Amino acid sequence: MTGSHPASDGPVFRGTYVNSCADNLAWFMLVSLSRIRTIMKIKSINKELSDKRKVAFRTEPQIDATVLEQIRRLLQQSLVLKGVGMELTEGCLVVIHPAFTPELAKNVNDLLNAAENAVRQAGEDARKREELEQNAKNQAIMSAAGAFGVPVE
Fold first, then answer.
1. 43: which residues sit within 8 A by CB, 6+ positions away?
2. CA quadruple 21, 27, 93, 64: dihedral sign
3. What is the largest CA-CA distance in the chain?
4. Which residue, 23, 80, 112, 132, is most buried by CB atoms nearer than 10 A?
5. Contact 31, 113 (CB under 8 A)
6. Distances (CA, A) of 53 to 45, 49, 63, 131, 138
7. What is the pTM of this model?
8. Can you tell me whether residue 49 is helix, strand or coil?
């Protein structure tokens, strides 16, 4: 499914609308860092796409459109990453900032992990909802079959 839910401007992930930016930011800022799974890793720097004010990182897994949208939403709300720009170029996450410090690296890594986790959680939630809906459907069908005394084909 693609597009947006009428009541949401969030991206769609397998039929699930990723939580609002404020909800994700609240989760990102309030949850202890030990609970955030490190699943997004910066693997290397693409020298050709980098210069003194921007660095192009290769990540594992590679950032897709849904994760990039989550990154942008979290970045817009982040107080610790004010003034940092991010874009996706040739499969690399380009971070735009005048100074690349260990603190910036930590904050960018935390942001990447929070965005990836939010998208993965949305996918897991969608799968669970689909499973529950399928079980409810099967129960209704079996109930109707029993009540009417007919087989299910």
1. 57, 58, 59, 60
2. negative
3. 75
4. 112
5. no
6. 14, 11, 21, 47, 57
7. 0.62
8. helix
